[in-house]
Amino acid sequence: MSKLRTALVVGLIGEGIGASRTPAMHEAEGAAQGLDYEYKLIDTAGMVDVDLGVLLLELNDEGFRGINVTHPFKQKVLAHVAERADEVALVGASNTVLFTERGPRAHNTDYLGFLHAFRHELATAPRKRVLLLGAGGAGRAVGLALAEAGVGTLFIRDNNVDAAERLAADIRENFPWTVAEPVDAAGLAGLVPDGIVNATPVGMVSHPGMPVARDLLEPRPWVADIVYFPLETELLRTARERGCATMSGRGMAVMQAAKAFEIFSGKQADAGRMAETFDSFDAKGDRR
Predict the structure, then answer these.
(1) Per-residue pLDDT tens for 160-180?
(2) Of the chain's two ends, which shows fewer C-beta atoms within 10 Å, N or C?
(3) Domain coordinates of the chain in residue numbers?
(4) 217, exposed or middle or buried, with CB in 10 Å at 0-12, 13-18, 19+?
(5) Which among 197, 279, 288, 287 is positioned nearest to 231, based on CA atoms?
């Protein structure tokens, strides 16, 4: 590949991303806007000792306009960028990197994506007490978005205690109306939150299972999951069977992709059109 090529080339770096719907959303939107637009997957599953900095340099040299970043690189990528957009300073993670003449510039479209979906799909949901599962790159974006959406008390559960404590401290500093507290495994049993949000990879095809014990999913107002493949995770299916309202990862996936498209192309995305592409996949992840 050469920088002389005329196509706008972008991609996604992550582990176990073969079923991602993001390439189709980007390429269909690019075609609709008359762009020669290519979206490539760089799946690190099975790779040993991935050097993210070298990989970014190689993609830049090959003519990529930018790259999306997903698990497990959303925080690691910050060590390899020259500039950070304002929302990255807040979230402390990036899912979108634009290659510029000044060097890689980090953005975060997860934050806006989740906030938009939550406000539209769970607009009237009670939010006095919410349990967030995960304080990594995606978890930070989701936790801060929940605070902005007016959650009263946010309990944060992550095996990395330091990560949970850092997120709680950042929420208290930036959103003083939200009480943010880490919670350990033993503390989960006594919680009775209005809602639960999964911001871990557990539930993905490559990470099957549930991030919490089934007993925690007693009938409660709502449960949300940012995983979108499968669209109905085991967590959401179990929650629905127990009478909870549910929110899948669809809305966040579409909106974060739309904002990333705008960063890469400099053109406004049609989120509705990108949602139609997202919905064109069947339950197995194949295009209809």
Answers:
(1) 999 999 999 999 999 999 999
(2) C
(3) 8-108+251-278, 111-250
(4) buried
(5) 279
Residue 242 in contact with residue 216, Cβ under 8 Å? no
pLDDT digits (tens, 9 = 90+) for 186-221: 999 889 999 999 999 999 988 899 999 888 888 789
For residue 287, which amino acid is it?
Answer: R
Largest distance between two CA atoms of the chain = 60
Q: Does domain 8-108+251-278 have CATH number 3.40.50.10860?
A: yes
Choice among 74, 76, 259, 267 that is catalytic: 74
Classified as helix, coil or strand, 64 is: strand
pTM: 0.89
Which residues make beta-bridge pairs with 145?
none
Tokens of 107: 């953005």
Give the pLDDT of residue 4.
Answer: 46
* Known active-site residue 74: yes
> To which residue do tokens 């949602």 refer?
275
Tell me which residue has tokens 């176990």: 16
Class of domain 111-250: alpha beta
